[in-house]
């Protein structure tokens, strides 16, 4: 018999999309997974995750669309404009976005909030969510300053790395016009983590959807009507990110749903900053090691024969996989929230069930998406370019991309589990081994030694993904969930600030 979603009916903008359920696996007389009604528990867990993952997929896709729309507009200005904008976007991801948070589409320092806010919410230490978010905003804004300086010298850095001079110069100009993005980006992802860990996701869908629609108009004006060309696309990114930040900030401040978790700015956020950094740095390293390996493909493609073609196709491939990755990314965000909430609430077996459910859902989705990619391989390239050579090359790449997307989906939900548990340091070691001992060397071998070209670069990363999935699966299967719940309790109450000080 299906359970009701809550006493007050359907969720609204002022309430979490996922109400808490009074009954849990542990509340039934302390029963474990072996003695419960599996069908009912699995059904409940699937409903919770889909209600959470669906909007998160939409939010992730809509936010990612900002950069994708900009690249598409620029692509119709010519091959040089496309390759330079793609190179600049990749460089910005490597040196900036991946450090901070969740678009592009991985998580960096901001993913520490998945653990801290999620477990605090599960333990009903609501006032700590606002403190954690303020602390994250302070740290990420400070980190953004040196990253902005790096962006200002993008052209010179790319030239020093041996990239084509013409592409490097245009990419440097594009990156300089994107500098305002990085500050908005960090603040945006702090708000996203803050809301997501409370299961409040529908308002983010509205703000992201409105911003994406507005971004189409802004890009059209700045790219084609203002005479700015590719510089206009970069400026459009900055404007749109700031619009999204302002919308979510207003919601957090004025929504009754955040009344308990946001009590205003507090000097207490400056206390215990180093404990946040100790979790945030492994979070950034875990993400950057993976993200850099994908972006490195674009940089390496510039060293292949016919670099404009290789760079354009590899950039299209990366954008395609990043867009499709939003589905498992939403599932990964859902399981991260579910695991962190349940561990914080002291329900380890429910957290374990959440992991089992999300893996099964992801495998199903991965097969469907991969099959669709193969079916549309002959026409997909036209979305980015009118060049016949580019379109044909993209068609050859699609089966390889389908394989990598399937494996990337599995690692995404397992990485979401790691964030929910606070395993960022372990994840960093896994990614280091998977991508830099297996993936990147394999890519270089296949592309430059065996002369397979751009296809070889991506096939090498597939090898790294296989190693990553194997290691994360082993770690997850060997997890002691009762011990993880104890660690979550120690983490939450070890950093708790008394309510009278936090108000």
From TrEMBL:
Q: List every stretch annotated Disordered.
A: 1-30
What main location does UniProt list? Answer: membrane
Protein location: Membrane
- Which UniProt keywords are listed? Membrane, Transmembrane, Transmembrane helix
One GO cellular component this record assigns the protein to is: membrane
Q: Name one Pfam family in it.
A: MatE
Q: Name one GO biological process term.
A: xenobiotic detoxification by transmembrane export across the plasma membrane
Q: Tell me the protein family, please.
A: Belongs to the multi antimicrobial extrusion (MATE) (TC 2.A.66.1) family.
Protein name in the entry: Protein DETOXIFICATION
- Protein source organism: Cinnamomum micranthum f. kanehirae
